[in-house]
Write a structure and sequence with these properties.
single chain; 369 residues; Rossmann fold; 5-stranded parallel β-sheet; 13 helices; 12% strand
Amino acid sequence: MTDAILVLSYGGPRGPEDVLPFMRNATRGRGIPDERLVEVSGHYQMFGGVSPINERNGELMDALGAVLRERGIDLPIVIGNRNWTPYVADTLRDLAASGARDLLVLATAAYASYSGCRQYREDLAGALAETGLSFGLTKIGPFAETDGFVAANTDAVRAAVAELPDARVLFVTHSIPTAMDAASGPGPRSAEPGSRMAAPGEANTYSAQHRRVAERVAAAAGLADDAWEIAYCSRSGAPHIPWLEPDVNDRMAELAAEGVRSVVTVPFGFVNDHMEVVYDLDTQARETAAEHDLAYVRAATVGVHPAFVGMLADAVEAALGRGEGGFDPAADPARSLLGGLRTCTATCCGSGRPGGPALPAACGAPETP
């Protein structure tokens, strides 16, 4: 019997004094000096040292809890973060103290990749090892290709394009190293009969998933094939390491040179207004638009859109064995990229770095797509 829903997220600073310690956590193991961290974290100080992710996650948890209670499900919903308080280990200690033993786990990342799925499992495994606690775990899988996520993004695109009817639409997501993209997805499991984790031989699951979602949203919103494309934001790391391109700012400059006069950005790679949205798109991209005399609108994130929250509630019901769900791979194998795969393998969603560790055994929790 499930005792609580554990939300796993990135976390973010809540004040100016939190920014440097947060950045140390986020870049742990990379050997980046504090001087450089202070330099690159300036965008947090533009917002008073406060990341919007904490408040937005709270809104999502409240909205999900309200929908679940309407359906007769009254479970505590708590959060554990990777890089700032409350940390995953501390949340697990609190849950154990309350008597919880079986958890439903939801990561606030829609797409399959190392940083969006597997690393959260590694966070969970590390927290279990640190605390010595034991829980029954069921993790909801990446949900980007669900109808609810697509419908919420479609409504956001329609609303934004209504403001700029002739705009070029840029679907924007977080860039990752191309090696990480190549390693994203199920690994050898994809070739097993009946697995819908990915089509046999499919590589680059992260970028492929984004392409499929963008195609569905564009079609549902009535966009012409030549009216939209995909761009990326938030590139970081050494310049010699290739990341997914084009950068949204570079592409906007190119479009202006080609004669495009208006642009809509759609942050379809994010579930709510993270710093990557309010800084990279609301600040940087807006400045780029002004520099090149482009009319500019940023579409909404899925946030607490009823279709998105309802999809998450469906996933909870399916994990609890209740309701009609909508995640039954036998009935609709194309519904979710992860349909038919119930456990993570030791090779899925690698980091792209050579010699990386196999997925910790503690993270091989049942997967509910």
